């Protein structure tokens, strides 16, 4: 194996943990009833929402989509009970952790 091949393997091995560590924009809120709601921007056009009860583990996703941590999605606001996430394509989500319970 020549030096160029070895360097290519080393560079690829170093890039894998960096890609795995990249985070997508996400907001998480817990309601007064103990439910946890998370909205994650998978891409500029896909938001993944999970809503779990206290102590419950989210089910694994059935869809295969490669998350794009380089997307332009941003958490716009996390002040008070309301959090907002938005993407450059105009897709947005708002989570209010004080939504009335038992409606």
How many beta strands in the DSSP annotation?
A: 6
In terms of per-residue confidence, which ranges show pLDDT below 50 for 5 or more consecutive residues? 16-21
Largest sheet: 3 strands, antiparallel
Rg calc:
18 Å
Q: Topology as H/E string?
A: HEEEEEE
Categorize the overall geometry: elongated
Q: What class, by secondary structure content?
A: alpha+beta
| Widest sheet: strand ordering | 1-2-3
Mean pLDDT: 78
Estimated helix fraction: 10-25%
Overview in brief:
This protein is of the alpha+beta class and about 100 residues long.
Q: Topology of this structure?
A:
Layout: H1 3-21, E1 26-30, E2 36-43, E3 46-52, E4 74-77, E5 82-86, E6 92-96
Explain what this protein looks like in three dimensions.
The protein is α+β, with helices and mostly antiparallel strands and 103 residues long. It has one domain (24-96). 18% of the residues lie in helices and 33% in strands. The chain is built from one helix and six strands, in the order H-E-E-E-E-E-E. It has one helix at 3-21; strands spanning 26-30, 36-43, 46-52, 74-77, 82-86, 92-96. The strands form two sheets. Strands 1-2-3 form a three-stranded antiparallel beta sheet, with no helix packed on it. A hairpin with a 5-residue loop joins strand 5 (82-86) and strand 6 (92-96). The longest helix is centred in the N-terminal third of the chain and has 19 residues, at 3-21. The chain is elongated. The N and C termini lie far apart (67 Å).
């Amino acid at each position: 194996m020549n030096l160029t091949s070895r360097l290519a393997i080393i560079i690829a091995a170093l890039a894998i943990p960096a890609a795995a560590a990249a985070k997508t924009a996400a907001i998480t809120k817990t309601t007064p009833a103990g439910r946890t709601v998370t909205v994650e921007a998978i891409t500029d056009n896909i938001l993944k929402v999970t809503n779990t009860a206290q102590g419950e583990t989210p089910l694994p996703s059935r869809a295969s989509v490669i998350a794009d941590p380089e997307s332009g999605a941003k958490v716009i606001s996390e002040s008070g009970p309301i959090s907002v996430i938005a993407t450059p394509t105009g897709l947005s989500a708002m989570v209010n952790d004080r939504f009335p319970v038992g409606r």
